[in-house]
Fold this protein.
Amino acid sequence: MANIVRHGKGWMARVYYKDSTGKRKSKAKGGFKTKGEAKGYAINLEKELLDGGSLNDCDTPLPEYFWEWYETFKEPKISARTKKSYEYTYNVLKNHFNNKALSAITRTTYQTFLTKYGKTHAKETVQKVNVHVRACVKNALYDKLIPRDFTEQTSVVFDKDRTQQIEYLSIVQMKNLVAYVSNSLNPHFTSKYMILLAVYTGMRLGELQGLQWRDINFNFKTVSVRRAWSDVEDDFKETKNKSSVRTIRVNNDILNYFYALKQSVSPESSKQQVFLNQYGTVPTSNAVNKTLRESLKKINVEKRGFHFHSLRHTHVAYLLANQIDLYAISKRLGHSDIGTTSRVYSYLIDEYKAKTDTEIEHALSQITISDDDSQKANSKTVCSTLMIKP
């Protein structure tokens, strides 16, 4: 039910409704120049209620609602590093939406935000913010705080110049890196051991940092990923997802390096983390990336966007070049499904692409029938005809 009354020099509309608990509430808005405008506003609100919408909390600003949603549903179960990404999104929303009510945001409003924000940010950054907002909005929709999802049918815009392409090493570069690192190993400084195992397994940095000696089975030639490590909290944490818990098959080459490393540590340390250095700590992301950059410089490789995670890309590219099945690669990486692997690693390393192009060209050449093939086909036709009885 709605009341339309005089309010100062204009008109005000007040709509009464019951919230999800059955409590009677009202929502009012004034400043309408005519009674008809106020009545139209009230009719629209009542229509939203009849369509299953809710007026509860509709006036909550988007940044405020996002933070409440984050603290309730996300913060208790995510890592310290992931928390920072949500905090970043919150600050972005504060800067762009300020006190804009959740119910006042339309698809046009949100697309305008994506376009403006994306013009000065990389693709990955914009996508991450968009993913956070979309999840938050779906929660509001589920609780009937808004009548529709304003993030639907919107598209991410980004600055191509700020968006770095995935970097990886060619086979020759990868072999040169392994040769240099393996010939300069020092058990007191374990970053190079981490580089080697990343090349051979494609493990994430946090997974390597959390690796313990009991996770390496020298008899079965496997490395088991059971946990990860947080640089921020300086402690163990769960793996990225359930599928990240996995067992990876390796070969004797990499095992020999780690067998020698294990012999150099004390019996007490043999039960601890594999990559503890002489200071009793595990190399941080900054430390291992510094060692990687220095190693690449030694083999005359210059790749601006190459970092430790790029070794994971290199591992995948090498397996693809050797025609390893994509499903097997997906399981080895700990991806939840093969679609993730296919999407992220749709690129091919130079050697693999050249080989694939050659194979495609050869296959296409088989489509055209050669003169010899034509003569053989005609010969078979003649023979078949002669064998037909009258």
Remarks:
- Residues 381-390 have pLDDT under 50 and may be disordered.
- The chain has three domains: 2-50, 62-142, 171-344.
- The radius of gyration is 31 Å.
